[in-house]
Amino acid sequence: MIRKVTIAAQAALLASTGLVSAETLNWARAGDSLTLDPHAQNEGPTHALAHQIYEPLLIRDMTGQMVPALATEWGPNADDPNVWTFKLREGVTYHDGAAFDSEDVLFSLERAQSEDSDMKELLNSIKEVRAPDASTIEIETDGPNPILANNLTNLFIMDKGWAEANDVVKVQDFEGGEETFASRNANGTGPYKLTSRAPDSLTELEAFDGYWGKGEFPLEITKIKYTPIKNAATRVAALLSGEVDFIQDVPVQDLGRVDADENLKVIKAPQNRVIFFGLNLGDDDLTTDDVEGANPFADKRVRQAMNMAINREAIMKVVMRDQSIPAGVAMPPFVNGWTEALDTIPSNDIEAAKALVAEAGYGDGFTVTLHCPNDRYINDEAICQAAVGMMAQIGITVNLDAKPKAQHFPQINNLETDFYMLGWGVPTYDSEYIFNFLVHTKTENRGSWNGTRYSNPDIDAKIVSLASETDLAKRDATIAEIWAAVQDEILYLPIHHQVLNWGMSNKVETVVDPEDVPKFKYFTLN
Amino acid sequence: MELLEINNMVVEFPSRHGVFTAVDDVSLTVAEGEIVGLVGESGAGKSTVGNAVMGLLQSPGHMPSGEIWLHGERIDQLSPSDMRSIRGKRIGMIFQDPMTSLNPIETIEYQLVETIQTHLDVGTSEARRRAVDLLDQVGIPDPANRIKQYPHQFSGGMRQRVVIALALCVEPELIIADEPTTALDVTIQAQILELIKDLCKSRKLGVILVTHDMGVIAETTDRVAVMYRGRLIEMGETDQVINAPQQPYTRSLIAAVPPSNKKINRFPKVAIEESDGNALQNFDLKGHWLGRGDAFDTTVENLLEVRDLQKRFIVKSSILPRNRVYMDAIKGIDFDVRSGETFGLVGESGSGKSTVARVITGIYPDDGGSMRFAGHDLTGASGKDDARAGRQNIQMIFQDPYSSLNGRMKISSIVAEPMIVNKLTDTAEERHQIVTDLLELVGLGKDAAKKYPHEFSGGQRQRISIARALATRPRFLICDEPTSALDVSIQAQILNLLKDLQEQLRLTLLFISHDLPVIRQMCDRVGVMRHGDLVEVADTEALFEYPQHSYTQTLIGQMPKFAK
Amino acid sequence: MDSVKRAFDSDLAWSFRHSPVAILSATVALLLILAAVCAPLIAPYNPFDPASLNLMNGFSRPMEPNAFTGDSFLLGTDDQGRDVLSTILYGMRISLFVGFAAVVFAMIIGVVAGLVAAYAGGRVDAIIMRIADVQLTFPSILVAMLIFGIAKGFTPVHLRDQMAIWVLIISIGLSDWVQFARVVRGAALVEKSKEYVEAAILIGRGPIAIIFRHILPNVLSPVLVIATISLALAIIAEATLSFLGVGAPPTRPSLGTLIRIGQGYLFSGEWWILLFPSLTLLLLALSVNLLGDWLRDALNPKLGD
Amino acid sequence: MISYIVKRALQSVLVLLAVGFVAFGMFRFIGDPIDNMLGQERTDADIERLREILGLNDPFLVQYWNFLKGALQGDMGVSFRQGRPALDIILDRLPATLELAMVSATFAMVVGIFLGIYTAINRKGPITNFILTTSLIGVSLPTFLIGILLIYLFAVELKWLPSFGRGDVVPVGDWWTTGLLTASGLKSLILPAITLGLYQMTLIMRLVRSEMSEVLRQDYIRFARARGLKERAINFRHAVKNTLIPVITVAGLQIGSIIAFSIITETVFQWPGVGLLFIDSVQFVDIPVMASYLMMISVMFVGINFIVDMAYLAIDPRLRGGKGGN
């Protein structure tokens, strides 16, 4: 630890003495990577940093397209859909000069499946991994897995030799508080190599001379200084004052100011995340309401009325400043299964909604508590606040309980909330992922984020069937059926799809990555 | 040419209540080698004269007219920096309280050397040498070592010597001593006054001695100026002023001073413009509530019998008993107080005399010995029923009239509280009547009941204190230095009042004082205390005329003699 | 009547009448308090009634018609379309209520603890003051955050909204009692050594009566000074806690919550959401502070010139 | 003397035990760390397994006992968030906070004492009134607001000073890093130090003012005047020195609270110190880090208290004991 800080500080000293070249990019976002061990944490900012240093077999480029990285070709074998073959790229070396081959892939996949790995759930369909030769990998699954490739885009490949030499064959036991060589050092094949790191404070990267993609990618940035800045106002201030060149998570209200600055610009793109409210529709009685012995949410008419009461237009215009896409379904538009029809937003008809509530027998209104995070989604608290006003208009008095995500999410998981906000991203770009977590009955292995208490054995069976259905057309049909049921039940009250905003100096050119992971090798500089 | 000449000095303090004239047309001279006393009661403006001469009037005080001449040089209009070079160098000043006059965090040496070097162009070693010499001259033993010490390492008397050394260190021509011995015990007082007299003669100093104490004036000064309410009433040779005062105020002032050589029955009525309170009203106390009370045996010979009484205080606390350090305040004393008499306890500060009062009253628990009060055992926890019953008949009058009354309570509540607490009255009307009677009895009008303590003078407050004490119908009244915070004329009234009350209510008094002449006036018998021991008990006259114990002899020998 | 006249003639009143700063700050503080108390009567809208809000009114500039609805607001609206003026008035109510209640709470604990420590002395004194030391070890902000956390854990979910205010009061109060205790203990030790306390013992008063009837009234002056300054501190502490996200709920915002909301719009040009609540807070805290300052000097005649 | 030190040390240990207990107890209720530690794709079985590993299923007292046992060996547990020993993380961040605190404290002391002396000597007058009133404005706004306004003015509008972070730091010795030796480090310090120190400065100024006014009324000051000493010597030697003795106590405690109050300043300025770490930990429910932070704050408070006591003993001759002869 001591030595690391020293290195970081020395690097900082060098930087301060004028060796900073024009190609340095100062990058800031709200949170820091949790660890450098690429398999220890399955989490956004952690992967974002790892993507600069390590590479998976294939990645999504900045437009969300799956493109080759360490593998050049892949696909299920024509004869056996249970086996996928990956052709590996030749002539790739690690930052320390070691060569990349199939042994490393074999090693990395095994490592990622081990007990302490946080990535293992993504690989649980894998039965066996084989390396027929130095540039080929075969993966056998326990049944046809049509989306195996989707699960590998964040699965980074490490050098077996380096891991063995540094005693990091085992994944860092993050939860157990282990600290390993790999959690503080990195040796990947990626476009940038680590030069110094002080967690939560400053991480420095430098372009890797031996990168295989030289010539193929712009690679114009030669140095990256990455500083997490938690406070949004400070982050924006740093961009405005020119101290950083590139920030993620620009508060929507500051977009105008950043955009108006002649040296700065904002670029945006729809994000792979949908925001919605969940309702406890399964319990006989709610704990947070004032209705004795009955659950108003169990009545579909109430849910319908609430869905209609939400003025998505106003939320978009005022709260989100046009930086959102009103949603009619709890599914980002990128996802397999999404249709325009599903995503039609319900009409905002207060009178009709009131009538429905009255019809359901709650004409005099009732009181309920809405639980909301205040540090997770864009303007989460303000959206909930707006919802409080909208619900008040149809006679539902809502107490708002907004708090940090660390306290909010456990309530959903412990089924302690009747009315809550949740956002959902879909890294696999497939509806199955949504169903597994949000629609399936809450059981040991599925439905863990389903706070609605909704349980439908038919739907559950359909959801389970998706995993092994190889006929993609049939599979898509099942998906559509499930969605129809979800929409009909009004399981969730969708609000909007988030829009990602990146603020940056005019000298930086890039498009927005829908998963909010900047891949700097694609960035160009003016 | 006089050393100091003050002509028609006027000092004013503007305030929101108007302009207060603290010194009104005072003229005064001081010659070399002469000690001029400036005497008067509080508020007379005597200290202000001294401060004005020094150019140290407290803001917003100022001197609108008058002249001050020092050796033919007019000094009242000098610039601040010129005046500063006169202060300390040509005029030195000694303050009342040696405990607060010295900077506590600098050594004596630093303070002396600093002062010397401020006024004289001498090197540090020369200044040091002079400083050691000075300490030697003012009678500090081992000056070369003690000069390195801090003020808190000196006793009160020694500290006052250091203060005098500081005032003298650049050999001024004039010394203004403002109550230089008031804070000191009588034995120390005599030494300090002797020192000032010696220095005055040996160095040809002029001295203005500001004091309220006629005894000090009589013993020390060559001439005396009597001040009253800012005006100089009378000035002359000390003997002449004391023995043949010309002005009525001076006469009444001198009459109020307790003579040290004989006992008088009552102090003559003071003939100043206004009295502190009315004369004692004549009640028929036989039928009055105050005269009734519990059947109480007053026929016992000794109302209070104290045997081997001990009291100690923890000086340093510790969880382990063996590490605790104690100070023995009362080291096993025996005395009796006879019914109907006034028993005096006299001693210097720290002798334990006030502690005796607080142990008898139960404010402090005792640490051994026995106290029997009219058949009740007072020892042990004060909560014991027997002790409590006994103590209902004991009350106390305190030294400081400003802290002995709760400033947030009306006088009526203060006086009524004992009756309420002890349930001595049946109805509110009765209580109200008794409060009125008590206030009349101690010489305050019944209007006093509606007021708060701060609306009264010190003497009046002491009367309220007495009324409160009487409200429990006590048989035994402890007076702990009841007049030491009062001016001498007020003291005379309060002492008269106490004597009257004692006669009418057949009270037994325990009278505690450091002031020997007061003791002589008040007491039938006297005990002398020193360091927690009772060294001598005797009839008052016998004690003053034929003191047996050497300490008593010293004490009486050194008390300022004031006799007409 | 008599006591009124007495109060008017007192040194305190005199000093007040001759201090323009005291008069001005008292006037401002009184006006603000009055405005807060009368908020339902004078505020143009009720920002705490969610049904009356129109989100589309959000971010209206002061005195300019809203782009969508055409409504105009004197001090503009915030992100939820609430009239800033009304929200400030209602928010000040909460801030003042929290402030006053927290100070009263701290005062009660502190004064009782201080009096008991001073009067009992010895072991009791040592224990109380040691607890105070421990309390001091926890910085006030930390105490408040921890209590907030703990209370949220214990409060039933549906009561949390209402509880937030009380939790604020308790947490600010708890972090504030020590200075009351210390000052009261110091003052009470001085009073205890005065002879009127011995006189009260002699006439048979018990310890409780002596502490509360005799000593307490005499230590109220410093308590008053501390209470005034604490009020300003409590209002600011409430704002700070709100900034850290543990304050009043956003649906019933206090001044602090308003400032927290407003600070998010500092760079984006909606300055009025931050500026007006901040100015109100500044005026309120400053006037109370100035009053406390004056009170301290006026009640400590030794420092008067 | 030695028994005094032993007594203080014992008291300190008791204080620390109490703090530990209270802190640890409170943390149980702040939130559940599990959800943050596991990603979106976790099952209820994962949660149960992790709770078991972390010992979160043990009875409260068992957890406290384990915590204390560890704490005694310098093991405050492992950060749930960073997966490193909590104490290491704290120590990593400590230099940043201490440096900020020291600079703030120095600023508060120097300016506070200077202004306090000035306003005590010149009790009335326009400058004094101006200082007293403006200093009140400083304490009538919440710290975070002052910080944000400073950033807005000096970083965003004027672009004179950085808005966040420590700037460049250089290592000093094995585990200390300092920003005091680089231009950008120094520039970065200015705004946070002022923000953090402003309140304490006002406090110290007012304390010095009232203490010194009190001292100036003492007899020994009058006596010093009566000896003709120069005003400067009286004010600056006699009065200031006596004033500063009680000020030391308060100022010492202020350093402690500066460290604690840096929570807010560090959040606003993204200062990579322990305060920011603490806020991050609260939001992440990183109990070991929170507990370590609290224990560290307590140790510092207790330590500072102790040092202040000792300083008092050293400076004030009256407390050094030893009544001289006579």
Write a structural description.
The complex is a heterotetramer of chains A (526), B (564), C (305) and D (326). With 526 residues, chain A is of the alpha+beta class. Helix content of chain A is 29%, strand content 23%. Chain A is globular. Chain B has a domain at 4-255: Rossmann fold (3-Layer(aba) Sandwich). Chain B contains 19 helices and 20 strands. Chain B has helices at 46-54, 80-86, 108-119, 124-137, 143-146, 156-168, 186-203, 214-220, 238-243, 248-256, 353-360, 385-391, 411-421, 428-441, 458-470, 488-505, 516-522, 540-545, 550-558; strands at residues 4-15, 18-30, 35-39, 62-70, 73-74, 91-94, 174-178, 206-211, 223-228, 231-237, 302-316, 325-338, 342-347, 370-373, 376-377, 394-397, 476-480, 508-513, 525-530, 533-539. Chain B has a six-stranded mixed beta sheet with strand order 6-7-8-3-9-10, with helices on both faces. Chain B has a six-stranded mixed beta sheet with strand order 16-17-18-13-19-20, with helices on both faces. A four-stranded antiparallel beta sheet of chain B has the order 2-1-4-5. In chain B, helix 3 (108-119) packs across helix 4 (124-137). Chain B is globular, with a radius of gyration of 26 Å. In chain C, 71% of the residues lie in helices and 0% in strands. Chain C has 14 helices and no strands. Chain C has helices at 2-9, 11-17, 20-37, 39-42, 84-120, 122-137, 140-154, 160-174, 177-192, 195-202, 207-218, 220-243, 255-263, 271-299. The relative contact order of chain C is 0.14. Chain D has 326 residues and is mainly alpha-helical. Residues 322-326 of chain D have low confidence and may be disordered. The chains are: A alpha+beta (526), B alpha/beta (564), C mainly alpha (305), D mainly alpha (326). Chains in contact: A-C, A-D, B-C, B-D, C-D. Chain B: Its main location: membrane. Chain B: Belongs to the ABC transporter superfamily. Chain B: It is a peripheral membrane protein.
Mean pLDDT of chain B: 86
So how many helices of chain C? 14
How many DSSP-defined strands of chain C? 0
Largest interface: A-D, 64 and 69 residues
Structural class of chain C: mainly alpha
Q: How would a crystallographer describe the biggest sheet of chain C?
A: none
Share of helix of chain B, binned: 25-40%
* Strands in their spatial order, largest beta sheet of chain B: 6-7-8-3-9-10
What would the CATH topology of one domain in chain C be? MetI-like fold
**Radius of gyration of chain C, taken over Cα atoms and rounded to an integer in Å:** 23 Å
CATH class of one domain in chain B: Alpha Beta
The strand count of chain B comes to 20
Family (chain A): Belongs to the bacterial solute-binding protein 5 family.
GO biological process, one term (chain A): peptide transport
Subcellular location (chain A): Periplasm
InterPro entries (chain A): Peptide/Ni-bd, SBP_5, SBP_5_dom
